[in-house]
Design a protein that fits this description.
seven-stranded mixed sheet; globular; 19 helices; Bact_solute-bd_prot1; D-Maltodextrin-Binding Protein, domain 2; Periplasmic substrate-binding protein, ABC-type sugar transporter; 438 residues; sugar transport; alpha+beta; three-stranded antiparallel sheet; periplasm; 2 domains
Amino acid sequence: MTINRRTLLAGTAGLAASAAFIGPFGMRGALAQAAAPKFKPEEGASLRLLRWVPFVAGEEEAWNANTKAFTEATGVEVQIDQESWEDVRPKAAVAANVGSGPDMVMSWFDDPFQYPDKLVDVTDLATSLGEQHGGWYEGLEGYAKQGDKFIAVPLCAIGNAICYRDSHMKAAGFEEFPSDTAGFLELCKAMQANGTPAGFPHGKAVGDGNNYAHWLLWSHGGKTVDEAGKPAIDSPETRAAIEYAKALYATFIPGTESWLDINNNRAFLAGQISLTANGVSLYYAATKDPAMAEIAEDIRTTTMPVGPVGQPVELHQTSTLNVFQHTKYPEAAKAYIEFMFQPEQMNAWIEGASAYCCQSLKAYADNPVWTSNPIHEPYSKASASLRPNGFAGPLGPSSAAVMADYVLVDMFAEAVTGQRTADEAIANAERRIARYYR
Protein backbone atom coordinates (compact mmCIF):
# COMPACT_ATOMS: atom_id res chain seq x y z
CA MET A 1 0.00 0.00 0.00
CA THR A 2 1.43 3.40 -0.98
CA ILE A 3 0.36 6.52 0.91
CA ASN A 4 0.44 9.52 -1.40
CA ARG A 5 -1.28 12.80 -2.16
CA ARG A 6 -3.95 11.33 -4.40
CA THR A 7 -5.25 8.34 -2.47
CA LEU A 8 -6.34 7.05 0.91
CA LEU A 9 -9.91 8.02 1.71
CA ALA A 10 -9.40 6.49 5.14
CA GLY A 11 -6.63 8.97 5.74
CA THR A 12 -8.95 11.87 4.97
CA ALA A 13 -11.40 10.51 7.51
CA GLY A 14 -8.58 10.14 10.01
CA LEU A 15 -7.52 13.75 9.53
CA ALA A 16 -11.09 14.84 10.14
CA ALA A 17 -11.15 12.78 13.31
CA SER A 18 -7.89 14.39 14.36
CA ALA A 19 -9.30 17.85 13.84
CA ALA A 20 -12.36 16.95 15.86
CA PHE A 21 -10.12 15.64 18.63
CA ILE A 22 -7.98 18.73 18.92
CA GLY A 23 -10.70 21.30 19.47
CA PRO A 24 -12.90 19.84 22.24
CA PHE A 25 -10.02 18.58 24.37
CA GLY A 26 -7.90 21.70 24.39
CA MET A 27 -4.83 20.34 22.61
CA ARG A 28 -4.16 23.49 20.61
CA GLY A 29 -1.81 24.81 23.26
CA ALA A 30 0.29 21.68 22.91
CA LEU A 31 0.19 21.94 19.14
CA ALA A 32 1.47 25.50 19.28
CA GLN A 33 4.49 24.23 21.19
CA ALA A 34 5.43 21.54 18.69
CA ALA A 35 9.12 21.87 17.93
CA ALA A 36 10.43 22.80 14.50
CA PRO A 37 11.60 19.74 12.57
CA LYS A 38 15.15 18.73 13.42
CA PHE A 39 15.62 16.25 10.58
CA LYS A 40 15.41 16.99 6.87
CA PRO A 41 14.74 14.24 4.29
CA GLU A 42 17.31 13.60 1.56
CA GLU A 43 16.48 14.87 -1.91
CA GLY A 44 14.28 12.40 -3.79
CA ALA A 45 13.73 10.22 -0.74
CA SER A 46 11.03 7.56 -0.46
CA LEU A 47 10.41 5.11 2.38
CA ARG A 48 8.98 1.68 3.05
CA LEU A 49 7.62 0.67 6.46
CA LEU A 50 6.88 -2.90 7.59
CA ARG A 51 4.22 -2.96 10.29
CA TRP A 52 1.96 -5.40 12.09
CA VAL A 53 -1.61 -5.90 10.94
CA PRO A 54 -3.83 -3.59 13.01
CA PHE A 55 -6.58 -4.98 15.24
CA VAL A 56 -8.31 -1.59 15.52
CA ALA A 57 -9.37 0.10 12.27
CA GLY A 58 -9.16 3.58 13.76
CA GLU A 59 -5.51 3.04 14.67
CA GLU A 60 -4.62 2.22 11.07
CA GLU A 61 -6.70 5.11 9.72
CA ALA A 62 -5.00 7.59 12.03
CA TRP A 63 -1.51 6.25 11.22
CA ASN A 64 -2.23 6.39 7.49
CA ALA A 65 -3.68 9.90 7.77
CA ASN A 66 -0.56 11.06 9.60
CA THR A 67 1.60 9.41 6.92
CA LYS A 68 -0.36 11.19 4.22
CA ALA A 69 0.19 14.49 6.03
CA PHE A 70 3.94 13.76 6.19
CA THR A 71 4.01 13.11 2.44
CA GLU A 72 2.15 16.33 1.75
CA ALA A 73 4.54 18.28 3.98
CA THR A 74 7.79 16.79 2.68
CA GLY A 75 7.10 15.15 -0.69
CA VAL A 76 8.44 11.85 0.68
CA GLU A 77 6.13 8.98 -0.23
CA VAL A 78 5.85 6.12 2.26
CA GLN A 79 4.87 2.59 1.32
CA ILE A 80 3.35 0.60 4.18
CA ASP A 81 3.52 -3.19 4.14
CA GLN A 82 1.45 -5.17 6.62
CA GLU A 83 2.20 -8.61 8.01
CA SER A 84 0.54 -10.75 10.66
CA TRP A 85 1.89 -10.38 14.18
CA GLU A 86 3.70 -13.71 13.94
CA ASP A 87 5.29 -12.86 10.57
CA VAL A 88 6.72 -9.41 11.37
CA ARG A 89 9.55 -10.85 13.47
CA PRO A 90 11.02 -13.29 10.90
CA LYS A 91 10.54 -10.90 7.98
CA ALA A 92 12.29 -8.10 9.85
CA ALA A 93 15.14 -10.43 10.79
CA VAL A 94 15.58 -11.47 7.16
CA ALA A 95 15.62 -7.84 6.00
CA ALA A 96 18.22 -6.99 8.63
CA ASN A 97 20.48 -9.90 7.79
CA VAL A 98 20.33 -9.71 3.99
CA GLY A 99 20.53 -5.91 3.97
CA SER A 100 17.53 -5.18 1.78
CA GLY A 101 13.79 -4.72 2.04
CA PRO A 102 11.85 -2.22 4.15
CA ASP A 103 13.61 0.86 5.49
CA MET A 104 11.79 0.70 8.82
CA VAL A 105 9.87 -1.82 10.89
CA MET A 106 7.44 -1.77 13.81
CA SER A 107 9.08 -4.54 15.81
CA TRP A 108 8.07 -6.52 18.89
CA PHE A 109 9.55 -6.55 22.39
CA ASP A 110 13.36 -6.71 22.36
CA ASP A 111 13.66 -7.80 18.72
CA PRO A 112 16.05 -4.89 17.96
CA PHE A 113 18.62 -6.61 20.17
CA GLN A 114 18.72 -9.55 17.75
CA TYR A 115 20.41 -7.39 15.09
CA PRO A 116 21.58 -4.13 16.74
CA ASP A 117 24.51 -3.77 14.33
CA LYS A 118 22.02 -3.68 11.43
CA LEU A 119 20.12 -0.69 12.80
CA VAL A 120 20.68 3.06 12.46
CA ASP A 121 21.76 4.79 15.65
CA VAL A 122 18.74 6.98 16.48
CA THR A 123 20.06 8.42 19.75
CA ASP A 124 19.82 11.98 18.42
CA LEU A 125 16.19 11.47 17.41
CA ALA A 126 15.06 9.61 20.53
CA THR A 127 16.84 12.04 22.86
CA SER A 128 15.25 15.01 21.12
CA LEU A 129 11.76 13.46 21.31
CA GLY A 130 12.19 12.61 24.97
CA GLU A 131 13.24 16.15 25.79
CA GLN A 132 10.29 17.59 23.88
CA HIS A 133 7.57 15.37 25.28
CA GLY A 134 8.15 14.64 28.96
CA GLY A 135 10.56 11.73 28.67
CA TRP A 136 10.16 8.05 27.85
CA TYR A 137 8.58 5.48 30.15
CA GLU A 138 11.42 3.49 31.64
CA GLY A 139 10.20 0.05 30.58
CA LEU A 140 9.62 1.07 26.97
CA GLU A 141 12.92 2.93 26.82
CA GLY A 142 14.64 -0.28 27.90
CA TYR A 143 13.30 -2.04 24.83
CA ALA A 144 14.96 0.54 22.57
CA LYS A 145 18.25 1.38 24.28
CA GLN A 146 21.52 -0.55 24.32
CA GLY A 147 23.80 1.05 26.88
CA ASP A 148 23.67 4.77 26.20
CA LYS A 149 22.64 4.32 22.58
CA PHE A 150 19.12 4.17 21.17
CA ILE A 151 18.94 1.43 18.55
CA ALA A 152 15.19 1.97 18.12
CA VAL A 153 12.48 4.48 19.02
CA PRO A 154 9.87 3.29 21.56
CA LEU A 155 6.45 3.36 19.92
CA CYS A 156 3.84 1.98 22.30
CA ALA A 157 2.69 -0.65 24.73
CA ILE A 158 -0.36 -2.65 23.70
CA GLY A 159 -2.10 -3.25 26.99
CA ASN A 160 -3.24 -6.72 27.98
CA ALA A 161 -6.18 -7.11 30.36
CA ILE A 162 -8.79 -9.67 31.38
CA CYS A 163 -11.91 -9.46 29.21
CA TYR A 164 -14.96 -11.28 30.56
CA ARG A 165 -18.74 -11.60 30.32
CA ASP A 166 -20.18 -9.95 33.42
CA SER A 167 -23.46 -11.89 33.38
CA HIS A 168 -21.60 -15.19 33.04
CA MET A 169 -19.34 -14.34 35.97
CA LYS A 170 -22.36 -13.55 38.13
CA ALA A 171 -24.17 -16.67 37.01
CA ALA A 172 -21.16 -18.60 38.25
CA GLY A 173 -21.71 -17.16 41.73
CA PHE A 174 -19.27 -14.22 41.73
CA GLU A 175 -20.52 -10.67 42.24
CA GLU A 176 -17.06 -9.17 41.77
CA PHE A 177 -14.06 -10.29 39.77
CA PRO A 178 -11.44 -12.00 41.99
CA SER A 179 -8.29 -9.94 42.48
CA ASP A 180 -5.97 -12.86 43.30
CA THR A 181 -4.93 -16.02 41.47
CA ALA A 182 -6.60 -18.36 43.97
CA GLY A 183 -9.98 -16.70 43.51
CA PHE A 184 -9.42 -16.53 39.75
CA LEU A 185 -8.97 -20.29 39.56
CA GLU A 186 -12.20 -20.83 41.49
CA LEU A 187 -14.02 -18.49 39.10
CA CYS A 188 -12.70 -20.40 36.07
CA LYS A 189 -13.82 -23.69 37.62
CA ALA A 190 -17.31 -22.32 38.27
CA MET A 191 -17.62 -20.85 34.79
CA GLN A 192 -16.57 -24.14 33.22
CA ALA A 193 -19.21 -25.95 35.27
CA ASN A 194 -21.79 -23.49 33.92
CA GLY A 195 -20.77 -24.15 30.31
CA THR A 196 -19.17 -20.70 29.91
CA PRO A 197 -15.46 -21.56 30.12
CA ALA A 198 -12.31 -19.46 29.92
CA GLY A 199 -9.54 -19.81 27.34
CA PHE A 200 -5.95 -18.54 27.19
CA PRO A 201 -3.44 -19.28 24.39
CA HIS A 202 -0.80 -21.92 24.99
CA GLY A 203 0.26 -21.74 21.33
CA LYS A 204 2.99 -19.62 19.77
CA ALA A 205 1.06 -16.35 19.97
CA VAL A 206 3.45 -13.38 19.88
CA GLY A 207 1.24 -11.25 22.10
CA ASP A 208 -1.36 -13.21 24.03
CA GLY A 209 0.69 -16.40 24.40
CA ASN A 210 3.76 -14.59 25.73
CA ASN A 211 1.69 -12.29 27.94
CA TYR A 212 -0.05 -15.26 29.56
CA ALA A 213 3.09 -17.38 30.02
CA HIS A 214 5.08 -14.56 31.59
CA TRP A 215 2.21 -13.65 33.92
CA LEU A 216 1.95 -17.28 35.03
CA LEU A 217 5.66 -17.39 35.87
CA TRP A 218 6.06 -13.94 37.40
CA SER A 219 2.86 -14.02 39.47
CA HIS A 220 4.28 -17.01 41.33
CA GLY A 221 7.72 -15.42 41.82
CA GLY A 222 9.54 -17.26 39.03
CA LYS A 223 12.02 -15.84 36.54
CA THR A 224 13.94 -17.08 33.52
CA VAL A 225 17.33 -15.69 34.62
CA ASP A 226 18.78 -13.88 37.60
CA GLU A 227 20.24 -10.37 37.63
CA ALA A 228 23.52 -11.65 36.21
CA GLY A 229 21.82 -13.45 33.33
CA LYS A 230 22.29 -16.92 34.80
CA PRO A 231 19.41 -19.37 34.13
CA ALA A 232 17.04 -19.38 37.13
CA ILE A 233 14.01 -21.16 35.70
CA ASP A 234 14.58 -24.31 37.78
CA SER A 235 12.95 -23.19 41.02
CA PRO A 236 10.07 -24.00 43.40
CA GLU A 237 8.32 -20.87 42.13
CA THR A 238 8.37 -22.15 38.55
CA ARG A 239 6.95 -25.50 39.70
CA ALA A 240 4.17 -23.69 41.55
CA ALA A 241 3.41 -21.68 38.40
CA ILE A 242 3.20 -24.87 36.32
CA GLU A 243 0.88 -26.57 38.80
CA TYR A 244 -1.36 -23.52 38.76
CA ALA A 245 -1.28 -23.42 34.94
CA LYS A 246 -2.31 -27.09 34.81
CA ALA A 247 -5.28 -26.41 37.09
CA LEU A 248 -6.37 -23.45 34.94
CA TYR A 249 -5.88 -25.37 31.69
CA ALA A 250 -8.28 -28.04 32.97
CA THR A 251 -11.04 -25.40 32.96
CA PHE A 252 -10.34 -24.14 29.42
CA ILE A 253 -12.13 -24.86 26.19
CA PRO A 254 -10.27 -27.64 24.31
CA GLY A 255 -7.58 -26.71 21.77
CA THR A 256 -5.90 -23.71 23.41
CA GLU A 257 -2.49 -25.35 22.99
CA SER A 258 -2.60 -24.45 19.30
CA TRP A 259 -4.05 -20.95 19.60
CA LEU A 260 -2.34 -17.97 17.98
CA ASP A 261 -3.14 -14.32 18.70
CA ILE A 262 -6.39 -14.32 16.74
CA ASN A 263 -7.91 -17.48 18.20
CA ASN A 264 -9.00 -16.29 21.61
CA ASN A 265 -10.63 -13.25 19.95
CA ARG A 266 -12.62 -15.49 17.65
CA ALA A 267 -13.63 -17.90 20.41
CA PHE A 268 -14.82 -15.07 22.68
CA LEU A 269 -16.80 -13.30 19.97
CA ALA A 270 -18.33 -16.60 18.88
CA GLY A 271 -19.56 -17.21 22.42
CA GLN A 272 -17.35 -20.27 22.87
CA ILE A 273 -15.51 -18.73 25.84
CA SER A 274 -16.53 -16.07 28.32
CA LEU A 275 -13.16 -15.05 29.75
CA THR A 276 -9.71 -14.42 28.27
CA ALA A 277 -6.99 -11.76 28.22
CA ASN A 278 -6.72 -9.42 25.27
CA GLY A 279 -6.25 -5.91 24.03
CA VAL A 280 -9.15 -3.47 23.94
CA SER A 281 -9.62 -4.50 20.30
CA LEU A 282 -11.75 -7.42 21.48
CA TYR A 283 -14.33 -5.04 22.92
CA TYR A 284 -14.41 -2.86 19.82
CA ALA A 285 -14.79 -5.83 17.51
CA ALA A 286 -17.96 -6.69 19.41
CA THR A 287 -19.33 -3.13 19.37
CA LYS A 288 -19.03 -2.89 15.59
CA ASP A 289 -21.15 -5.95 14.83
CA PRO A 290 -24.88 -5.55 15.53
CA ALA A 291 -25.13 -9.32 15.91
CA MET A 292 -22.77 -9.06 18.88
CA ALA A 293 -24.61 -6.26 20.68
CA GLU A 294 -25.46 -8.51 23.62
CA ILE A 295 -21.83 -9.59 24.00
CA ALA A 296 -20.55 -6.00 23.72
CA GLU A 297 -22.94 -4.81 26.42
CA ASP A 298 -21.83 -7.63 28.71
CA ILE A 299 -18.04 -7.19 28.35
CA ARG A 300 -16.02 -5.93 31.30
CA THR A 301 -12.26 -5.52 31.65
CA THR A 302 -9.86 -5.72 34.58
CA THR A 303 -6.19 -6.17 35.34
CA MET A 304 -4.61 -9.61 35.65
CA PRO A 305 -5.03 -11.22 39.12
CA VAL A 306 -2.21 -10.86 41.64
CA GLY A 307 -0.41 -14.10 42.51
CA PRO A 308 1.62 -15.26 45.51
CA VAL A 309 4.34 -12.73 44.62
CA GLY A 310 1.94 -10.13 46.05
CA GLN A 311 2.10 -7.43 43.38
CA PRO A 312 0.92 -6.89 39.80
CA VAL A 313 3.49 -8.31 37.35
CA GLU A 314 2.45 -8.14 33.73
CA LEU A 315 4.04 -8.37 30.32
CA HIS A 316 2.46 -5.97 27.87
CA GLN A 317 3.03 -6.16 24.16
CA THR A 318 5.60 -3.53 23.20
CA SER A 319 6.49 -2.14 19.80
CA THR A 320 9.43 -0.04 18.64
CA LEU A 321 10.28 1.70 15.38
CA ASN A 322 13.59 0.53 13.91
CA VAL A 323 15.50 2.02 10.97
CA PHE A 324 17.68 -0.45 9.04
CA GLN A 325 21.19 0.54 8.06
CA HIS A 326 20.55 -0.56 4.50
CA THR A 327 18.11 2.32 3.96
CA LYS A 328 19.22 4.87 1.40
CA TYR A 329 17.40 7.60 3.27
CA PRO A 330 18.15 7.52 7.02
CA GLU A 331 17.41 11.21 7.49
CA ALA A 332 14.02 10.82 5.81
CA ALA A 333 13.25 7.91 8.12
CA LYS A 334 14.15 10.01 11.16
CA ALA A 335 12.08 12.90 9.81
CA TYR A 336 9.09 10.57 9.39
CA ILE A 337 9.35 9.25 12.95
CA GLU A 338 9.88 12.76 14.32
CA PHE A 339 6.74 13.93 12.50
CA MET A 340 4.63 11.03 13.81
CA PHE A 341 5.58 11.86 17.42
CA GLN A 342 4.55 15.52 17.29
CA PRO A 343 1.41 16.39 19.31
CA GLU A 344 -1.05 16.74 16.44
CA GLN A 345 -0.12 13.38 14.94
CA MET A 346 0.54 11.39 18.13
CA ASN A 347 -2.61 12.49 19.95
CA ALA A 348 -4.72 11.69 16.89
CA TRP A 349 -3.11 8.23 16.66
CA ILE A 350 -3.62 7.42 20.35
CA GLU A 351 -7.22 8.55 20.13
CA GLY A 352 -7.78 6.66 16.88
CA ALA A 353 -6.44 3.50 18.51
CA SER A 354 -9.22 3.76 21.14
CA ALA A 355 -6.97 2.72 24.07
CA TYR A 356 -5.31 -0.07 22.08
CA CYS A 357 -1.90 1.66 21.97
CA CYS A 358 -0.55 3.16 25.19
CA GLN A 359 1.84 6.08 24.72
CA SER A 360 5.61 5.74 25.07
CA LEU A 361 6.17 9.42 25.92
CA LYS A 362 4.84 10.73 29.24
CA ALA A 363 3.46 13.98 27.79
CA TYR A 364 0.67 12.01 26.10
CA ALA A 365 -0.61 10.31 29.27
CA ASP A 366 -3.40 12.88 29.61
CA ASN A 367 -4.96 12.00 26.26
CA PRO A 368 -8.71 11.95 27.02
CA VAL A 369 -9.14 8.54 25.42
CA TRP A 370 -8.13 6.94 28.73
CA THR A 371 -11.09 8.38 30.64
CA SER A 372 -13.65 8.30 27.82
CA ASN A 373 -14.84 4.74 28.59
CA PRO A 374 -14.52 2.58 31.75
CA ILE A 375 -13.44 -0.29 29.47
CA HIS A 376 -10.22 1.62 28.75
CA GLU A 377 -9.08 2.03 32.37
CA PRO A 378 -7.12 -1.25 32.78
CA TYR A 379 -5.16 -0.43 29.63
CA SER A 380 -4.25 3.14 30.60
CA LYS A 381 -1.17 2.33 32.69
CA ALA A 382 0.38 -0.34 30.47
CA SER A 383 3.45 1.73 29.63
CA ALA A 384 4.10 2.56 33.26
CA SER A 385 3.48 -0.91 34.71
CA LEU A 386 5.04 -3.26 32.17
CA ARG A 387 7.86 -5.57 33.23
CA PRO A 388 10.48 -6.30 30.52
CA ASN A 389 10.46 -9.90 29.29
CA GLY A 390 14.14 -10.40 30.22
CA PHE A 391 13.41 -10.09 33.96
CA ALA A 392 15.39 -10.33 36.14
CA GLY A 393 18.37 -10.03 33.79
CA PRO A 394 19.23 -7.26 31.35
CA LEU A 395 17.60 -6.94 27.95
CA GLY A 396 19.82 -7.90 25.06
CA PRO A 397 20.34 -10.52 22.34
CA SER A 398 19.82 -13.36 24.83
CA SER A 399 16.47 -12.17 26.16
CA ALA A 400 15.35 -11.41 22.61
CA ALA A 401 16.25 -14.90 21.46
CA VAL A 402 14.49 -16.61 24.39
CA MET A 403 11.33 -14.63 23.63
CA ALA A 404 11.54 -15.23 19.88
CA ASP A 405 12.00 -18.96 20.47
CA TYR A 406 8.88 -19.13 22.70
CA VAL A 407 10.80 -20.87 25.49
CA LEU A 408 8.36 -19.95 28.27
CA VAL A 409 5.30 -20.51 26.10
CA ASP A 410 6.55 -23.98 25.19
CA MET A 411 7.43 -24.86 28.79
CA PHE A 412 3.90 -24.26 30.02
CA ALA A 413 2.32 -25.88 26.94
CA GLU A 414 4.42 -29.03 27.36
CA ALA A 415 3.48 -29.30 31.03
CA VAL A 416 -0.25 -28.56 30.85
CA THR A 417 -0.83 -30.93 27.94
CA GLY A 418 1.16 -33.74 29.57
CA GLN A 419 3.74 -33.83 26.77
CA ARG A 420 6.37 -33.55 29.52
CA THR A 421 6.31 -33.70 33.30
CA ALA A 422 6.84 -30.44 35.13
CA ASP A 423 10.45 -31.36 35.84
CA GLU A 424 11.05 -32.34 32.21
CA ALA A 425 9.47 -29.14 30.90
CA ILE A 426 11.60 -27.03 33.25
CA ALA A 427 14.76 -28.92 32.32
CA ASN A 428 14.04 -28.43 28.63
CA ALA A 429 13.42 -24.71 29.16
CA GLU A 430 16.61 -24.39 31.21
CA ARG A 431 18.63 -26.06 28.46
CA ARG A 432 17.20 -23.69 25.85
CA ILE A 433 17.72 -20.60 28.03
CA ALA A 434 21.34 -21.61 28.73
CA ARG A 435 21.97 -21.94 25.00
CA TYR A 436 21.18 -18.24 24.55
CA TYR A 437 22.71 -16.93 27.78
CA ARG A 438 26.27 -18.12 27.18
